[in-house]
Every structure is written in C-alpha cells, then in structure tokens.
Amino acid sequence: MSNIYIETYGCQMNFADSEIVASLLQKEGHSVVTDIEQADYVLINTCAIRDNAEQRIRKRLRELRALQGRHKQLRIGILGCMAERLQSQLMVEEENVSFVVGPDAYRRLPAILQQVRQQGTKASETELSTTETYADIEPVRLGSNGISAYISIMRGCQNYCAYCVVPYTRGRERSRDPETIVAEARSLFDQGYKEVTLLGQNVNSYRFSSNGREVDFPELMHRVAEISPLLRVRFATSHPKDLSDKLLEVMASHSNICKCIHLPVQSGSDRMLKLMNRHYDSAWYLDRIAAIRRYMPDCSITTDVIAGFCTETEEEHQMTLEMFRKVRYDYAYMFKFSMRPDTYAAKHLQDDIPEAEKTRRLEEIIALQGEIALENNRKEIGKTFEVLVEGESHRSKEQLFGRNSQNKVIVFDRGDAKPGQYIMVKVTDCTAATLKGVRVQ
Ligand code: SAH
Ligand code: SF4
Ligand code: F3S
User: Fold this and answer.
1) In whole angstroms, how far apart are CA 422 and each of 73, 75, 93, 150, 251?
2) Is 276 close to ligand 2, i.e. is its CB under 6 Å away?
3) Which amino acid residue places its CA nearest to atom 10 of ligand 1?
4) 73 CA to middle of ligand 2, Å?
5) Helical (H) or strand (E) element with 436
6) pLDDT tens per residue across span 259-288
C-alpha cells in the first residue's frame, strides 16, 4: 500500500473533490500523508480557469523534478480541471507526469495507481459523466479545523458563459441526492462541526427528483438548516439569473443560514453581459440586489468581476465601476480576462484589450473596492455580532479570530474563548479586510 500526498489548487469544489479522492484511496488501504518526502504518489488537483492558474501548475511540476531525482519511485498524477482540459497531451508536454485523471473518473484512481506501479505504463482517464456525484463517498476532511466543512451538492455546469472553461472541464450539471447531503451534514454536526458550506457552480439550479417529487435548492437549504440551530449553513455560488425570492425567504427565516450571498456580476455593462452569455442585464441584477436587501437588510454581498473582456470599451469599464458604487460589495474577487481555449470567446471573439489596459482597468476596480470595503466595515463599528471562533489570529497568539454570519473576519483578545464556540463580539475598529472587537456577554 502506498503513501499519497495531495496538493489542491483552484476553487472550493476542487478542495471538496480532494477529500473524496482521499476517501476513495484510503478505502483501498492507501495512506494520505502530509509530508511530501514520504510520498509514493503526488496527486495535484488542478485548476484551468485562467492561464496563470495553469502556469502555476507547470511551475510546480518543474520544482517537483528535484524531488523525483531523490525519490526514484515517486509518481506524479494530475487531477482536476487541467487534467480534463489537456487529457493525455499533458503527459507529452510534462514528461514527469505519469497519469491524468479528470473530475468524474476518481473512482478509477486505485486501479490507475496499480497499473502505473505494476506495469510501469502511463494512464489517462478523462471521461466525463452525466450522473457521477460521488454521493455515497464520505469525504476525508483534509486540513480541516474540525469546525467548518464543505459539502458538494452538485457537479458540472452548462451555463456556457462565453469566457469560461468550466463546462468543458466539469461536464453537464447534475444534482446529488438530497438524502445523502442531509445525512452528510448531520454526521458532520454530530462530529462537532459547526458550519457547512454547500457547494456548486450554480447552486440555485440544484434540482433532484425521486419518486416523482422534486427537491429544489431552497428546500434543500431548509432541510440542512433544520438539522440544528447551532449548525451554520453557507452556500456558493449563486448565479444572478436564478436567484429566487423563495431562497431569500428561506434564508431570512433561519437564523443559522448565514447572511451572505456571493453573486458574481462579471460586468456592469449590458452589452458585455450579453456577449458573456450571462442571461441577465444590469437592471435584473440590481433588482436581485434590492430583493436581497428587502428580505435581509443585514446581508453581506460579494462578487466576481472580469476586467477587459473581449471588445470592452472604456465606457463599459466605467459601467462596472458604477455597478460597484451602486451595490457596495463587502468583498470581490477581481480578475483580468484570460482567453481560454474551446470557449465561445476563443472561437468567436478577439482578445483585443491590451494587457496593460486590462491591468489598468483591474487596478481601478481593486482601488474602488478597497475604499468601499473599508467604508462598509467602518459602519460595523459599535455593532455586536455572534462570532463562530475558528482559531488563532495570524498576527498574535494572544488573539483569536472567527467570522460573523456575514462571513466577515473578526479578531479579538483570546480571553477564555475556544475555537468552535459561538461568542458575542462588539466591533471597535477595522481595516478594509478585517474587523477588530472585544468579547461581550
Ligand atoms: N460558477 C461561478 C464561477 C466559477 S469561476 C459563477 O458562475 O459565478 C470563478 C470566477 O472566475 C468567475 O465568476 C469569473 O469571474 C472568473 N473567470 C472565469 N473564467 C474566467 C476567464 N476566462 N478569465 C478571467 N476570469 C474568469
Ligand atoms: Fe463558468 Fe458561467 Fe458556469 Fe460559472 S456559470 S462555472 S462562470 S460557465
Ligand atoms: Fe478552477 Fe475547475 Fe474550480 S477550472 S475554478 S478548479 S471548477
């Protein structure tokens, strides 16, 4: 039996997948190790969303050559979205890779390890599935704090946003049996976990039918939230086109469903949104923001945005800045457009915004968002929040940090508080990224 070292890049769904991979391999008698020097196999779970994500993996593969020089029996396997995108070609381009396995083929991993070891051949398994959800696999929680965990509730995406590679790397959208999701959440709560995050590329389109009855995302959220008021429930990601009032109602009526919605806007320009194939315009998006605020005035809102998509004009870029000023996001993931092979954009559009111009637009968005986040945080000073304590602050052993329902990080003096506890903290100060506070009764 072998020692497996798993390294994960990309989104939360990849992290959740690595926990499924660990479980599948442990079941076959392999061990997951945290020291790479002990490894017989290094598995790299990769991301393909932007070119720089792939370049990072290629750099890592070069670094690993030295380790392979010292450990001749070491084999490297590539999992995840880059494996799916490049398939066996990746083993031609990167000679030190022995196998590639796509996101729907992880059940084949034990057999592949055996093949690579015993026959000394290379292997590639990248078939996508329309049904695989790994519903029966209980993930091994890797690097977990024992407090919060991810639960994958669906896989794939078929929205085909013009810029996005995910539909090609993750395949068709499919939802996981709600019974298995609720059971996994309950089991985590019984083990002492206090927070679960339900994951999918577009959780609003979660839908599972069995025996003629359909469970949608609001109902699933309701069922998970009912497990215990002491179990916090989060979710990611919501597509604005499908964000329903029914979900907002369910969120508002459960205090343990966290008041935080990640609603990627991508652009403030209607022409860009149409070209991106997002299926909403700025008016629709702002209507959804108004609905969130109507149901939950204290809900935080975060987003993703792309600067410099094909043919974006200066005026359209200004519309994105205007959108940021209107919504006043608490946090944003901000990216420069990166052309991805196979996408609609790659086939039909020109990547015509010069790099320097993309950088300038991105920096303008980042600067504006920094100001907004700081102003938003200043408004929290004086308020008291329930905080789930997560661990020691990175800055000082004397301080702990946790998050409020809005997912904002709050740092406070340790006192006798312990990770995993819910405590009340009054905010006294802030930066753009963090709140500082004192514990109150
Ligand atoms: N399913 C989620 C997004 C997953 S990818 C959703 O639709 O909201 C995360 C983010 O990466 C996207 O929201 C988008 O902002 C960004 N992204 C995706 N493809 C990109 C590309 N080709 N270049 C730059 N950013 C991209
Ligand atoms: Fe990509 Fe769009 Fe699917 Fe999100 S919804 S994963 S951006 S195709
Ligand atoms: Fe990256 Fe794949 Fe996630 S491309 S963002 S790891 S779905």
Assistant:
1) 48, 44, 50, 19, 20
2) no
3) 304
4) 39
5) strand 435-440
6) 999 999 999 999 999 999 999 999 999 999
